[in-house]
Amino acid sequence: MTYVEYKQLNPFQRFAHNFKKFIVSIPNALARFFKTIGRGIVNFFKAIGKGFKNYGVTFTKGDWATKLSYLIFGIGDIHKGKYYKGILYFLSEVFYILYMVFFGWTFLSKFDTLGTVKTREVIDPGQIIARKVYGDNSMLILLYSVLSIVITVIIFAIYISNIKDAYRHQIMRANGQKPTSLKTDAKEFLDGKYHVTLLSFPVLMIGIFNVLPLIFMILIAFTSYDKTHLPPGTLFTWVGFDNFSSLFDVVNNSKKATTFLELTKWTLLWAVIATFTNYILGMVVALMINKKGIKFKGLWRTLFVIAIAVPQFVSLLLMNQMLQSNGAINVLLSHLTGSNVEIQWLNSSVFMARATVVIVNLWVGIPYTILSMSGILMNIPEDLYESARIDGASPFKTFTKITLPYMIFVTTPQLITQFVGNINNFNVIYLLTGGGPSTENFYQAGYTDILVTWLFNLTIGSQDYGLAAAIGILVFIVCATLSLIIYNNSKSMKDEEAFS
Amino acid sequence: MIKSYKFRRHLANGLIYLLLAVLGIIWISPFVYLVLHSFRAEGLIAVPYLIPHEWTFQNYIDLFTGSGGTASINFPRWFLNTFVVACFSCVISTISVLAVSYTFSRLRFKARKKFMNVGMILGMFPGFMTMIAIYYLLKAMGLTQTLVALVICYSCGAGLGFQISKGFFDTIPRALDEAATIDGATKNQIFWKIILPMSKPIVVYTVLTSFIGPWTDFILAKIIMGDSLDNYTVAIGLQKMLANDFINTYYKQFLAGSVVVALPITILFLKMQKYYVEGVTAGGVKG
Amino acid sequence: MKMKRILAVLLAGMMTATAFAGCGGDTSSAASDNASDASSSTELQVKDSIVDYSYFGDEDNVTLKVWAPDKAVNLVKQQVEDFKKAYSEKTFNIDVVAQGESDAATQILNDASVAADVFSFPSDQLNKLVDADVIAKVAFVDTVKDENSADTVTAGTIKDTLYAYPETNDNGYYLVYDNSVVTADDVKTLEGTLEACKKAGKKFIMDCGDGFYACTFAFTAGAKIDGLEEDGETQKFVDYDEDEAVDTLMAFAKLIKDYKGTFQSLNVKQVASGFSSGTCAAGVDGSWDTEVNKTALGDKFGAAKLPTINVNGTDKQLVSMFGYKYIGVNGSSKYPATSQILALYLSGEKCQKERAEQLGWGPSNLKVQEDSVVTESAALQAIKEQSENACVQVNISSTFWSPMGNLGNKLVADAWDASDKDATKKLLQDTISNVRDEG
Predict the structure, then answer these.
(1) Residue C271 C-alpha, separation from nearest chain B C-alpha, in angstroms
(2) CATH number of C191's domain
(3) Given pLDDT bands bounded at 50, 70 and 90, which one contains residue C280?
(4) Do A422 and A469 reside in the same domain of the chain?
(5) Is C334 on the interface with B (CB under 8 A)?
(6) Separation of alpha carbons C67 and C329, rounded Å
(7) C102 and B245: CB-CB below 8 Å?
(8) Residue C307 covered by a domain
(9) Among candidate residues A240, A272, A289, the one where a domain is terminated
(10) pLDDT range class, residue A492, cuts 50, 70, 90
(11) H or E, element range at C321
(12) Which chain C residues touch A230 with a CB distance below 8 Å?
């Protein structure tokens, strides 16, 4: 279709066209995504191969100090006069050995079984009353093993860099160059290598408190960690893909599988509805507030902003109280109608409960949309509206023909963030309905439960950690794939340098 | 003709005013309900009417003096705890976010795109799955049941939320950096002396969002604090007031406490609204 | 008033003579036999819950943490002081911390090593604690068996091991009512109670979304629990007539429909709140709220066993769930001996009596049960009376509660069709199969 043809279509046809284009492009995008991953893996192994080669070559070419660096970190650097770096290398090796001897190895050595010593009772000499002696703690073994593995990987990277650095300095000396001083290096960290300076602290924090727990939880999905295998009293062990298969096994474990299927459907439906209702209605309100000739803009905006400022859990708990059958909403309706109104908003009909959740979510979400849209809405070129007005377009048409396409075009990344946010929208569901209305057809879940709240019930409520971790991984894969594809294909990512 | 156009515009505006007024009332009414009933003297939890019959300050007085209840509720202490945690974590978070987003926006280095992609998806793993691991890591450091642990938890992942402020930095013309580089400025100087002074909206936005976090989290904080009542934050405290042991005695104090927590945040938000909008607008378009 | 008191004393006398006619009746009498056998051969020297110093072993300068529910903190602190006086040769540093009983197990399972050494908890959490092997065995089995009612001992025993010290014998619910609206005659039947409430334009509140209360529907219908199967996990039910059970459930649903607007399913805490605001005239509530309900109602406070419901012309007594509260010792306590001795002391006769006097908690101790504090309390007598028609909370699988809560939710939901026999039958079958975790 040419540009001219496109321009002649009416908005609905255009939308259909764009939608078709989007759907058609999904397989391509997916293919590209997996190709990238595949290429990444190939490159990774190539790099390892190259690394091995360099490792050997450097050893044969190195002088005695470089060769000794293969055993003792930093010798090469110290020998060439780069003292501070050499000492740092050496200290890292000392730290690693001490860590492994005194802490890491005790856990890492049990990584394959996750512990075998059981809890028992003993009576100490001099005592009459028995005491419990806990055996291995599978969870700590797993956690500290992950920690040890991560540290080992880091130390290995340091080890390789130590060899490279030793060889580099050896060559520099052969060429008659002197190693740079500490002062020069420090300056470099404020300029050329400034990204290292800026990133090191955040990356360290994220590494310890995000990545490490993440690896741990991923591994949990392959263990039998549940309410009957609960450290410190009892052991758990590896079970392979059992937790995953129970989610998909429709024949033998029908309840978990149905729950997973049904909740996945509702989670996606919820995310779509919640995102778009918030987006479009929020935009409508923002347009009304920002319309020319409307006064008290600050006041209107303030009314909505207050809803943000009240902590979400407070407003949601309050909403929950207000929506009870004796709550404020029913009291208000009783006053208005003059009869006794007792609507069961949250725990009777599935449709009613789900609709209530979506509406309350509007209450929670629209203020954010208003705040983030106002500025962008005012940036829409005025002449677009001008020409529409001359053509006699109705406000509705102006909205669907100009505002909406413009906004979607500009804020795609935001829309995706919100979509992912709604998939993980724990607060609204948990605090408002607690998952209800309950049902006998689901395992540990109700009709408004989404995957994350189910996952929460499984961990906090029934200690089914293994199963919960498996669900967590699946949710993660969906969200991550979706956002990676869309971000990397979005306009703002492609012309990142547009403004610069 | 002109008259009817004017009339139509007036009519449209009138309708919009009406609609905004109705919506405004709907949005504000839970808050009004909260404030009204925090001054209620009678009843325990629910009452069958909307406006309290007897008014009192007693709920607020009890909340701050701890009278009329038991020793395990200590709201002033919790308020102070939360404030301290919020201040520290807000400083650390802001520095992290700005450092990360400036790096991704302005500095070019190997693996930058990879870092950005990993950073984006890391935040998508359901949070409380990792809580148990975080708890035992903190325990290994001897930090559980301390406020330091909370500061760490609330600020450790901050760097992952770089998208919006990176979007903002992207809108600052690069020519500025280039001119400064020619004048001999280092990247460090450019960051502090050129970019940051131009970034007030996004700094305010980041400070605001990270300051609010500690006031609202009630799950992770509860796991970390356990039974250490003195180190609770207001969020766990308010949640506790609704527990079965407490709700009959403390429901009205819960309402009062919620107002006390909501007020400063509301005022902060209203004062800083302009910057918030500017920050999120510039960042959102590019982010 | 006087008549009532005499009646209460009479009832109390009868009560102590009869064993609980609950579902686990057989096992409880067996346990009491055991208890008397064992006590004759014991060498333990325990008097007034005080033991010989030799039981401490070499523990001294002991630091302990005790968890008590918020309301009881001050009393327990006092009792801890008495404990210190009783063992004046040793030095203790004992901290009493407020911790709700309802999530004691959750807190301990999170991280047992920072949890309390001695803690109180309701009987439904015992399975969880034993499954995870975080609770220590009772060291003074014989004394506990001697002094406490057989049922509390049985309910604290899993696979022949006693895991906790009985603390109360009152973890059940009864009918609380406003006697200016509902008469003592009305409360005999559910129909009468609801009618009286409706006439006055007030509510009847029952927490049907919580399995602890909602299991009343299933139990009254005949689907009573009967311990666990041999695997030690699956819940066993007594044989029941399914048609009759379905009829009973339909009768409940119909009654709830007929009195829509009067019968309300709300959190149990709304009962007291409703009394205080004058919207509620009767409700199903337990001993833990007796004090607050009394404050709200004043002289109008009325307590009775649960009413009956008319099913196809016959009045059926509502059957409730009845449980106990225990004091447990954390398996990871650094001072296991002292913890056990303290738990024994806190669950002893003197401490139970103090709690009955000051908090209105029903004792498990046989002697205190005879005390006038108990026999003269209308609420405790109502609980006792109801416990005759109750399933004892022994060996309940962790999958019991949420299907039962769902059953209650369904019956009270507007969307539920009270006349749909097939749907009711399916609901009952699904509930039982979910409890038995057969899905």
Answers:
(1) 10
(2) 3.40.190.10
(3) very high
(4) yes
(5) no
(6) 11
(7) yes
(8) yes
(9) A240
(10) low
(11) strand C320-329
(12) 109, 131-134
Instruction: Show the domain range for A49.
Output: 1-53
Q: What does the DSSP 8-state code read for residue A180?
A: P
Of the candidates A440, A431, A451, A424, which has an alpha carbon nearest to the alpha carbon of residue A263? A451
C384, part of any domain = yes
Cβ burial, residue C74 (10 Å; 0-12/13-18/19+): middle
Question: What values do phi and psi take at B39, rounded to 5?
Answer: -105, 10
Q: How far apart are CA C222 and CA B270, in angstroms?
A: 61
Residues spanned by the domain of C382: 22-170+323-388
Check residue B150 and give its pLDDT.
Answer: 93
Three-class DSSP category at C247: helix
Are residue C151 and residue C176 in the same domain, yes or no?
Answer: no
Partner-chain residue, chosen from A319, A476, A484, that has the shortest CB–CB distance to B125: A476
Do residues A16 and A66 share a domain?
no
Q: Does C434 touch chain A (CB under 8 A)?
A: yes
Does A370 share its domain with A474? yes
Which chain B residue's Cα is nearest to C104?
B227
Q: Tell me the C-alpha distance between B10 and A495, whole Å.
A: 43
- pLDDT, tens only, A203-252: 999 998 889 999 999 999 999 998 888 888 889 999 989 899 888 877 77
Q: pTM (2 decimals)?
A: 0.87
Contacts of A438 in chain C (CB under 8 A): 209, 402, 405-406, 409-410
Dihedral-angle region of residue A115 (phi above 0 means left; psi in -120 to 50 means alpha; beta otherwise): left
Q: Which of A121, A122, A129, A250 to mutate to test the interface with C (most CBs of C within 10 A)?
A: A129
Count of structural domains within chain A? 3
Residue B256 has pLDDT above 90, yes or no: yes
Q: What pLDDT score does C39 carry?
A: 36
Please tell me what DSSP assigns to residue A401.
Answer: I
Q: Closest chain B residue to C67 measured between Cα atoms?
A: B227
Question: Is C2 part of a structural domain of the chain?
Answer: no
Q: Is the pLDDT of residue C9 over 90?
A: no
The CATH number given to whatever domain includes residue A413 is 1.10.3720.10
C257 vs B29: CA distance, rounded Å: 32
Residue C10 has pLDDT above 50, yes or no: no
pLDDT digits (tens, 9 = 90+) for C324-350: 899 999 998 999 999 999 999 999 999
A11-20, A432-441, B32-41, C50-59, range with greatest mean pLDDT: B32-41
| DSSP 8-state class, residue A380 | S
Q: A194-206 and B75-106 are packed helices; what angle lies between their axes, rounded to 10 degrees?
A: 140
Higher pLDDT, A126 or C255: C255
Residue C57 lies in a domain: yes
How far apart (Å, rounded) are the C-alpha atoms in residues B127 and A456?
A: 10
- On whether both A74 and A148 belong to a single domain, the answer is yes
